[in-house]
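Researcher: Here's my situation. A collaborator sent me these components and asked whether they could plausibly form a single complex. I don't have experimental data yet, so a predicted model of the whole assembly would be a useful starting point for our discussion.
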Amino acid sequence: MTLVSFPPSPARHFAVVVQVNYLSLSVVDLVAAVPLEKKKRLSLELMRISVMSQLQRSFSMEFPSLVSLKLPSPMETHLWYIRPDEVKSPSLLKHYSQLLSPSEKDQVSQLRGDALKKNALLARTLVRTTIARYQTNNAVDPRSLMFKKNTYGKPEVDWQNYKNYNNPPLHFNISHTDSLIACGVTVHVPVGIDVEDKERKIKHDVLAFAERFYSADEVQFLSTIPDPEVQRKEFIKLWTLKEAYVKALGKGFSAAPFNTFTIQSKAGTKGEYNLCKTSEMTTSSLEKTNNCNGGWKFSLLELADSHYAAICIEDDQASSGGAPMRVIVRKTIPFVEDELISESKLLKVV
Amino acid sequence: MASIAASSSTSLQARPRQLVIAANQVRCFSYGRRSHLSFNLRQLPTRLSVSCAAKPETVDKVCAVVRKQLSLKEADEITAATKFAALGADSLDTVEIVMGLEEEFGIEMAEEKAQSIATVEQAAELIEELLLEKA
């Protein structure tokens, strides 16, 4: 005797599932010969399919549902990125645009030119789909996510619609350039990221720029670099690190003007950096050490051979024990594919 | 008639286009022998934007600096109300625009203020404020 065969056609299947939901197992009960365990398994399977089909009904049937993700561990950052030039399909872009809120669509439309509009669309899509995928207990529709800004304007997830779910304390931050959009995700600790094109040309003299905005120690560091190309690259790396810090801090630029802190690479490490607060009065080296006492972890990576990406997270030194930040990098095209970027490919910048 | 132009532009940071003024518009009018307070919350036609208090020459110079920094084409329209972000400027561009403006006008902008300017108008008004202080 056969029960409902899997997978049945959508229309019939839907009707069957409704019956199972309301009449609880009566369909399965009809088949008396089936052992209890199998009945339970089958009913669970039917429930699962009903949820999936209802989700699929709300998305286009063409696109698979989002694959869920395991949360980052503490002191670990997940870095996701999209290359806009790899996303060309008009139907995929249309699917993405259906995920955005009305105010997001509004903001996209205010931008000048198709390239800017597309990038903004991809940025919102990346944020919504990535966060939705981390909700492992209950499937979350990326369209239903709401966002708010903290007192200083830093965007964060607004969980008001999901009060009954066990929401993981996710933090995120995005950064975009013309050719790459990135989103960093952590649990428990605030995160800030900044990406820049390695080849980005600064219109002003690099040292003049640094003297105006960076700290004295950073100007000193840059001025010792003889090759102007290397100097420009170091300038950009510093920019991404400083931006990442201010964004992680989340209190706006006035809370941490660029010339009030120095970021320098940690001696004897690869890609690790220290943050030191600058002060007019730091004369003794003891004072200097006290101004550099952690609180924040940095990591600087080269992405896709073309960009510098800086990540800054708040450091809970008690649990991390001073270990370097772990970063898992994945390139993605939402609903299509993820690609894990192996550590060997990611040149940790020295 | 209540004078819109008389209200200080620096209090209108948010620049809503449709609705003009709230607190500033308390005026005492004398029509003949009667005087009354008038709270004038007039709905202006939406196309009419609050006039920028900065001089046109300042606005033009700001536009020129922004064009240069963002490498805009001749065809790209840029007016007082244009937002830098709408033109694709990121934070590094904004800081470079500030440097360009400081050079052009011989002023220095405090970093917090520099990071907060989002439109040509805001930049022009801040510049004029600083020029006044300098004088």
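Model: Some features of this prediction you could bring to your collaborator: The two ends of chain A are 67 Å apart (CA to CA). The CA atoms of residues 14 and 53 of chain A lie 8 Å apart.
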